[in-house]
Amino acid sequence: MNLTSLKNEILPKLLSGSRGGLPLDSIGATDPLQTLALAGQALRFDRPPQPGQFQTEAAIADHAAILPDAARKLLLRLLSGKNQASAQLSAAIVQKLSEKRLRLHPFDLPRLEPFVKAHAENLGAEALAFSERETPVAQKQNYFAPDSLSDDTWMLATPAVKAGYINGRRASDPDAARAMVEAAWTSENADSRVRLLAAFWKNLSEADAPFLRSLEKDRAPRVRELAQRLLVRLPGFEGDNPALRAALERIKVSKTGLIFKKAALSLDVPATVRDFTKMSWLNETFGPISLDVMAGALSMTVDGLVAAAEKQGDLLAALLFMATQDRRLDIVKLITDRHLLNGWEAFSQLDSEMLADYPADMRQLWLEHIFRPDRWAPDTSPWVIRQMAQWLGAQTTENLFDDILRSRPWQALRGDSGRFEADIADSMAVMCPSSMRSTLRAELTGLDPAKSSNAILFLNLMDSLETANA
User: Fold this and answer.
1) Bridge partners for 392 per DSSP
2) Domains of the chain: which residue ranges?
3) Long-range Cβ contacts of 34-40 (<8 Å, 24+ apart)
4) What is the per-residue DSSP string for 26-44?
5) pLDDT tens, 37-74?
6) From CA 345, how far away is CA 314, in angstroms rounded?
7) How many CB atoms within 10 Å of residue 169?
8) Matching InterPro entries, A to Z (predicted)?
9) Is the dihedral of CA 81, 418, 371, 195 positive or negative?
C-alpha cells in the first residue's frame, strides 16, 4: 500500500473512529493504534502540494567590491560599538565608500542595520535590498548606480540618484532634462518633485517658463514656492514679483554726505522678529530675490547696492544670502572682505541645503570667503568648527585646515580639554585633508579619549579606504 492509499483509505476511517473494514493485514499492522502511528510517521515524509504560482524576485547583483578586512574591522568598531559614530562621521563614511566603489560585507548588514537603513540609497543594491526586505514588493525601490543610468532608466532609480542624474543633464542638455522631468512629473511624490525642480537652477532660460508656470497649481506648497522663485529669476521676467515687492517695502533709500551725496540704504526689520530668528527672516525675505533684480529695482549696480548698505549689518547679511543663492562668489568675497568680517555668524541659523546645487570646488571657495579662521578671536565659540564642517561636508584645502589648527579657538580647546566636545573632534576629522591626518591624529591623541577616540578611528578608516583597490 502506498502513501496515497494510506491517506485516502485508512486515515479517514481512523480519524472518524471507525474500526471496521480496515485492511490492517495489507500494511502489516495488528491493531488500529499501530496503524495510526504508522500513518503519522508516513505523513512526516509527505511533500506539501506544489503551489499554483510562485512570486519570485530578481537576484540582487551588486558588483562593487567588498571593503578590505582591515577597513571592515575599523568600520565595525565605529558603527556597532558602545560609543557609535556620529551622524557626520557616518555621512562621510558613506561618501567615501561611494567614491571608492566599495560595499559592506553581507554578513555585516544585520549588525549595522540602523546605519544601513539611514543610508541605504547610497550604499548599493545589496544594502538597499536588505533595508527593504520587509517592504511590500510594489513599494520597493530599484537601485541603479549613478554611472549606469541613461535617459531611458533614470526614473527607476532612488530619489537622490534621480535628482543627481537630472542635475547633470541640466548642465549638458537643459531642454532634454526638462522634457524628461515633465514626462515623469505626475508619478513623483512631493519630495522627489522638489529635488527634481531644484536642478532647474542650472541653465535656467525662457524655454523653462511654460513648465514653471504650469506648476502654479501643483498640490505641494513647496513645489509652488520653488517654481515661483525660479520663474522670477528668468531673464526679462515681467509680471508681479511678490518677494521683491515685500523686500522693497522694508528698504529705505536716503542720501548721505555734505558735498558728495551718495545713496544709503537702511532696513526696517519688523518688531515681531526676534534676534534668534532674524537671520532666518532675512533669508526668507531676501533669499528668493536675485541681486541683479534688486539692484535694478533700486536703480543701482550690484556693487553700488553693497556700498550703499555698508553700515547696515542686517542688510549686508541679507545681501550675503542673496549672493550665496545667486552663486555670486565675487559679491560674497566683497561683503566679507570689507564689511561683515564675521560673516559666518550670519549663517548660524540657516541650513547647508542652501549650497545643495554648488559644485565641490565652488562650495570650497564659498567656505574660504565666509569662514576665516585667521579672524577668529579667543572668545569665538569653538562650535564655529562644527558649523564649518556642516556647510562643507567634505575635506578642506591644506591651507584652510592649517588655519583652523592655528586658530585661537582650536588652540584654546587643546589647552582646556574640559571644554572639548566629541562633535568638534569629529568635525575636524571630517574636514581633515588626507595629507594632514597624521598631524591631526597627534593633536587628538593628547585629548580625552572618550571624546576623541571615534575621530581617530575615523582617520584610520579613511586611510585604509583610500589605499583600497589602489
Assistant:
1) none
2) 3-43, 68-112+371-470, 144-237, 240-356
3) 35/10, 38/6, 39/6, 39/7, 39/10, 39/11, 39/14
4) GGT-SSHHHHHHHHHHHHT
5) 777 777 777 777 777 777 666 667 778 899 999 999 99
6) 12
7) 22
8) DUF5691
9) positive
